[in-house]
Amino acid sequence: MIDDAPLLDRSARSAARLDWRAESSSTNQDLVSAAADPDWPDLSVIATDRQTAGRGRLDRTWTTPAGSGLAVSVLLRPAVPIDRLGWIPLIAGLAVARAADSLIPGADVAVKWPNDVLVGGRKLSGILSELTADGSVVVGAGINTAATPDELPGDAATSLAIAGATTTEPDAVLSAYLEALVPLYRDFVDAGGDATASGVRAAVTERCSTVGSRIRLEVPGGRVVLGTARGIDADGRLVVQPHDGSGLLPVSAGDVTHVRPDAG
């Protein structure tokens, strides 16, 4: 169903079902609520360019003033072990990065573990995945499209328009994202959730600016670790070498800040 929507012909070809909402409080919540309904199959999509009460990681808010961004949530029903689902937000982030590549020629686009996409070191997009009651996954992406500097939270953020995209039109952005996401997701599922065998692990690691960086990591519970990110393991966890000399630390969740070499 596409009511009061921009033309989304290209995007619709990549989705099993595509619903455009003129406004949504949260596309993720809308899709989580719909997930138990069999009328919403694998690769169903809800999208809007006006989100009023979206959530990011760590209960941060993510709202979209009308026309300034794209909030898109995808329902996934992967038949893979539950301990491999940590790859889903990383796959989505890689898909956003590849979409940005196609829309901003020559841009420096990177994935920041676990859920951000950066252009020139500034945040273009954030990812949030949620497990539903029936074991499906809803993965949401918030992409700053036509936002101006005044509409963004400070100098740490950017948009497609600011970065020089050739277009910020909804169908172009949404279709670029879905056309990148679907093959990555299908390769991952076809490999039984084996990110190494599917090539997903190598692709994400290559694009992830966190790997090899000095970081400040705050893990759930408030513990802070200073160290160097050494890689991403088979379950999608960031592997950190703490600077205190302790052993390698695999982390499945946390807030990461990249630390400049001269920042101590």
From TrEMBL:
Gene3D superfamilies: 2.30.30.100, Bira Bifunctional Protein, Domain 2. The lineage of its organism: Bacteria, Bacillati, Actinomycetota, Actinomycetes, Micrococcales. InterPro entries: aa-tRNA-synth_II/BPL/LPL, Biotin_CoA_COase_ligase, BPL_C, BPL_LPL_catalytic. Its EC number is 6.3.4.15. GO terms for molecular function: biotin--[biotin carboxyl-carrier protein] ligase activity. It comes from Labedella endophytica. Keywords: Biotin, Ligase. This is biotin--[biotin carboxyl-carrier protein] ligase. Residues 11-189 form the BPL/LPL catalytic domain. It comes from the Bacteria. GO terms for cellular component: cytoplasm. Pfam families: BPL_C (PF02237), BPL_LplA_LipB (PF03099). It is an enzyme of class 6 (ligase).
